[in-house]
Automatic annotation (TrEMBL):
<keyword id="KW-0645">Protease</keyword>
<dbReference type="InterPro" id="IPR036286">
    <property type="entry name" value="LexA/Signal_pep-like_sf"/>
</dbReference>
<feature type="domain" description="Peptidase S26">
    <location>
        <begin position="27"/>
        <end position="157"/>
    </location>
</feature>
<comment type="similarity">
    <text>Belongs to the peptidase S26 family. IMP1 subfamily.</text>
</comment>
<dbReference type="GO" id="GO:0004252">
    <property type="term" value="F:serine-type endopeptidase activity"/>
</dbReference>
<keyword id="KW-0472">Membrane</keyword>
<keyword id="KW-0378">Hydrolase</keyword>
<feature type="active site">
    <location>
        <position position="86"/>
    </location>
</feature>
<keyword id="KW-0496">Mitochondrion</keyword>
<dbReference type="InterPro" id="IPR052064">
    <property type="entry name" value="Mito_IMP1_subunit"/>
</dbReference>
<dbReference type="InterPro" id="IPR000223">
    <property type="entry name" value="Pept_S26A_signal_pept_1"/>
</dbReference>
<dbReference type="GO" id="GO:0006627">
    <property type="term" value="P:protein processing involved in protein targeting to mitochondrion"/>
</dbReference>
<dbReference type="Pfam" id="PF10502">
    <property type="entry name" value="Peptidase_S26"/>
</dbReference>
<dbReference type="InterPro" id="IPR019533">
    <property type="entry name" value="Peptidase_S26"/>
</dbReference>
<protein>
    <recommendedName>
        <fullName>Mitochondrial inner membrane protease subunit</fullName>
        <ecNumber>3.4.21.-</ecNumber>
    </recommendedName>
</protein>
<dbReference type="GO" id="GO:0042720">
    <property type="term" value="C:mitochondrial inner membrane peptidase complex"/>
</dbReference>
<dbReference type="GO" id="GO:0006465">
    <property type="term" value="P:signal peptide processing"/>
</dbReference>
């Protein structure tokens, strides 16, 4: 009797340990999760927050392309903000506009210096340029400069949001948000 009970307990502990190990490996090497909230990625993401799933296959910028949404360690506000989510708008060697029209991110004295001038910068090797979809309310590369690829934690592949009045969350898959334009 005691031997059978011990085997059942041992079997349960083994399955529990295996489940924890698989979960740990999954979150360490395959995917990461986290919350995102704020207005900088509207209308793509809801400002009241979404639970995001990020693929670590793209960690440190591997395979990231212009148009992808990435999660990264904030280069300036790491202590207060931790992780941030923005869209990649430039890769190494690309030229990007720093003073995006209508962005509303500069202080008045800075605007006096750049008004009427187009400020382009070349994204340096080992960096990318990120911006929020809601340019007017986004703290992004236009403020902190090109983002080191080493700070990218993953590519956002899906989000979970529970619509009001429902019990289960809806899954929203995220794809590259850029579309080709016919000239």
């Amino acid at each position: 009797m005691f031997g059978r009970k011990a085997r059942e307990i041992g079997s349960g502990l083994l399955y529990g340990t295996q489940s924890l190990l698989i979960g740990h490996l999954f979150l360490t090497y395959a995917y990461d999760t986290g919350d995102a909230y704020g207005v900088s990625m509207m209308p793509t993401m809801d400002s009241s927050g979404e639970f995001l799933i990020m693929s670590k296959k793209y960690r440190r910028g591997r395979g990231v392309q212009v148009g992808d949404m990435v999660s990264f360690k904030h280069p300036v506000l790491a202590e207060s903000m931790g992780r941030s989510v923005k869209r990649v708008v430039g890769m190494p060697g690309d030229f990007v506009l720093r003073n995006t029209p209508g962005a509303g991110i500069y202080r008045e004295e800075e605007m006096l210096q750049v008004r009427g001038k187009t400020i382009q910068i070349k994204v340096p090797e080992g960096h990318c340029y990120v911006a929020g979809d809601n340019l007017k309310w986004s703290r992004d590369s236009r403020i902190f400069g090109p983002l080191p690829l080493a700070l990218i934690r993953g590519k956002v592949v899906a989000g979970l949001k529970r619509p009001s009045g429902t019990l289960f969350p809806a899954i929203k898959k995220y794809h590259n948000g850029l579309q080709e334009v016919d000239e």
